[in-house]
Amino acid sequence: MPRSDDWVERQLHRRGITDARVLDAMRRVPREEFVPAEERAHAYADAALALGHGQTISQPFIVALICQSLGLTGDERVLDVGTGSGYQAAVLAELAREVVSIERIPELAEKARRSLEAAGYAGRVELRVGDGTLGLPDRAPFAGIAVAAAARDVPPALWEQLGDGGRLVLPVGRGLDQHLELHERLPGGQARRRSLAPVRFVPLVS
User: Fold this and answer.
1) What order of strands is seen across the sheet that includes strand 162-174?
2) CATH number of the domain that residue 138 is part of
3) Identified catalytic residue from 58, 69, 85, 115
4) Domain count for the chain
5) How many other CB atoms are there within 10 angstroms of residue 13's CB atom?
6) Predicted TM-score of the model (pTM)
7) Is 1 among the domain residues?
8) 2-52 pLDDT per residue, tens
9) 144 to each of 164, 167, 176, how far by Cα in Å?
10) d(Cα 201, Cα 206) in Å, to the nearest integer?
11) pLDDT 10s digits, 58-76
12) Which of 8, 130, 163, 196 lies at a CB distance of 3.0 to 4.6 Å from 180, suitable for a disulfide?
């Protein structure tokens, strides 16, 4: 599916993505730079696409929903867990002051690095290779954490690295029984949890 001027309106705005900053970010990031060459014709299709290594690039609507749910204003430090293609990290770079992204598969991390560079985001995303369930304590606290793989619950290390008032969005569940959830860290460390949408992600691997 080629890029068209109305894809953001059709796929995102009409389905509930109303944050103008998120809609603008989705327009600016060239998704075709983050998909395999053989999938470029489908870059803007409303579907997840295979990346290899058993991983996928999420459909545009889910990326937009995650970013909108983080409630970013532009001055935050954000952790992106599961870099994958680098696409979500690029969108986050349009929305936050600092983006740190972590990927456990070195080959995917290297491809993402090249894609981010080609799309003009090389200096705007800090990319690490490592275990995403452990987060990055040396860069914490984070105002937002986005997780692109399904867990049984919020990994404790990620919750500890979320600052007061911060938001964490991740898919929870296994197989076909998964829901994207928003977890907010309230003052005093209390949590508020809300289900956003049924989803299907690869499992989060430690």
Assistant:
1) 125-129, 98-103, 77-81, 142-147, 162-174, 177-185, 191-198
2) 3.40.50.150
3) 58
4) 1
5) 17
6) 0.94
7) no
8) 465 689 999 999 999 999 999 999 999 999 999 999 999 999 999 989 888
9) 10, 5, 26
10) 15
11) 999 999 999 999 999 999 9
12) 196
